[in-house]
Amino acid sequence: MAPAAITPESSGTTTPTTTTASKLTEAGIKHASHNSNGQTGKLAALDASLMTTTLNKAAKTVPEFDGPEAKAQKTMTDHMVTASWTVEHGWAAPELKPYGPLSIMPSASVLHYATECFEGLKLYRGYDGRLRLFRVSRNCARMCRSASRIALPDFDPKELEKLIIALCAQDGPRWLPKDRAGCFLYIRPTMIATDPALGVQRPREALLYVIMSCFPDMSKSLATPAPPAMQGEANGAAKASPGLRLIASSEDTIRAWPGGFGYAKVGANYGPSLVAQGEAKAKGFDQVIWLFGSDDYVTEAGASNFFVVVREKSSGKLQLITAPLEERMILEGVTRASVLDLARERMTKTQDGVEAVEVVEKRFNMKDLIAAHEDGRFVEAFAAGTAFFVAPVSVIHFRGRDIGVPMDGDSGVYARLIKQWLSNIMFGKQEHEWGVVVEEKAQ
After folding, report:
1. To the nearest 10°, the Cα dihedral for 58, 59, 61, 65?
2. What are the C-alpha distances in Å from 413 to residues 86, 278, 382, 420?
3. Apex CA 72: angle with CA 70 and CA 78, to 5°?
4. Count of domains in the chain?
5. CA–CA distance, 416 with 408 (Å, rounded to integer)
6. Alpha helices in 347-412 (DSSP H)
7. Could you give the CA distance from residue 20 to residue 24 in angstroms, rounded to a whole number?
8. CATH number at residue 188
9. Of 335, 442, 348, whose CA–CA distance to 387 is shortest?
10. What DSSP line would sit under 181-230, residue for residue?
11. Cβ(365)–Cβ(295) below 8 Å
């Protein structure tokens, strides 16, 4: 299927597809222009142009890509970026400095009230020799919205983007040399409330920081040995069959709910899910497919957005379906948005033997999937996110029953095609505005 033109990328804000999500985005933008006291323009704004630089004089040894250090997920690059904030003064000048420990008080708000948010994205070494980020403006805008949800300070998303690019320009050339085309580093922007007061109140101090890490390639075939984070057998051995094996969340376990904070990328969304994740792995599954309500509505798969391709019963048309944003239960994933954008641009007509699909964001439940499976209308399923990238699903276990998901070898046809399109943009095989080129600093 030949590529088609893509709508130009926005300047750091998302374009939700529902009324509620649109209001949420507008609220995030409005929040970003005010300080925590509701005043405007009186506190120092986050300003990347003020950043100071102190280089690490004891550079680390760069490990092999996707080696043991990457699988352990503990090896960071030489530098990090930090910026502190106080309610009295606003943002201090950011610093690019050697990676190292943070100093916070035992009473810090983040340690007691989960006042923390973060992002996850990657820096790619393209096959054309250049470093790239992928739709970084979306990550920065989403982090601003997440910060708003947990009373952390405002900032201009464009300034965070500049800080991320500065760190990538500094550490990217050495940690992703040009002979590592097709490789990547993982980037983790984070904001925590450092206010030392124990009272349950809006934080008066905060710290924004950005770090980069060696990270395992989770997009490889799941038939290969998996890193600890992906191992699915009770004895820790990686399973041999391709595709993610998902198990439905139990009736008494809910990941997110309407009007909650499932849409925000905050730490409070992840800690409570670890028990269910551990139980899933002990039973031989990779991830939990999170359901909601007595009707078992499907929301996410692990920490990824979830997609199915199903033939609609009455019309016979193929539909690419994912859960909607309007109830704020799911994360507005950057990969999710990209999958939907590409499908709407490139899959509206049957081409090269690949049948056209209708893109639908709507509620669907396990009853719908079981009916589609029994009727032979369930075509494929996949999870999509920064860590796993586009990962095909082979099995969904629901209340004692395994639902086999059709596969075309090691993937479904649509997941494979979308994954290739995205990879081409990320690694520079296709020039595209979603791929933000990072100008490297001389080493």
Report:
1. 150
2. 51, 30, 11, 11
3. 55
4. 2
5. 9
6. 366-375
7. 6
8. 3.30.470.10
9. 335
10. TT-EEEEEEEEEE-----SSS--SEEEEEEEEE----TTS-TTSPPPGGG
11. yes
Condensed to tens digits (0 to 9), the pLDDT of residues 233-277 reads: 433 334 456 899 999 999 989 999 998 999 999 999 999 999 999
Name the token pair of 421.
């399109």
Q: Do 184 and 119 reside in the same domain of the chain?
A: yes
- Which two tokens mark 229? 């984070």
Give the separation between CA 386 and CA 381, rounded to whole angstroms: 17
Q: Reduced to 3 states, what is the DSSP secondary structure of residue 350? A: coil
pLDDT one-digit tens code per residue, 120-175: 999 999 999 999 999 999 999 999 999 999 999 999 999 999 999 999 999 999 99
Q: How far apart are CA 119 and CA 361, in angstroms?
A: 24
With respect to residue 69, please indicate whether it lies within any of the assigned structural domains: yes
Cite the beta strand spans of 331-416 per DSSP E.
358-361, 378-385, 389-398, 401-404
Neighbours of 311 (CB within 10 A): 17
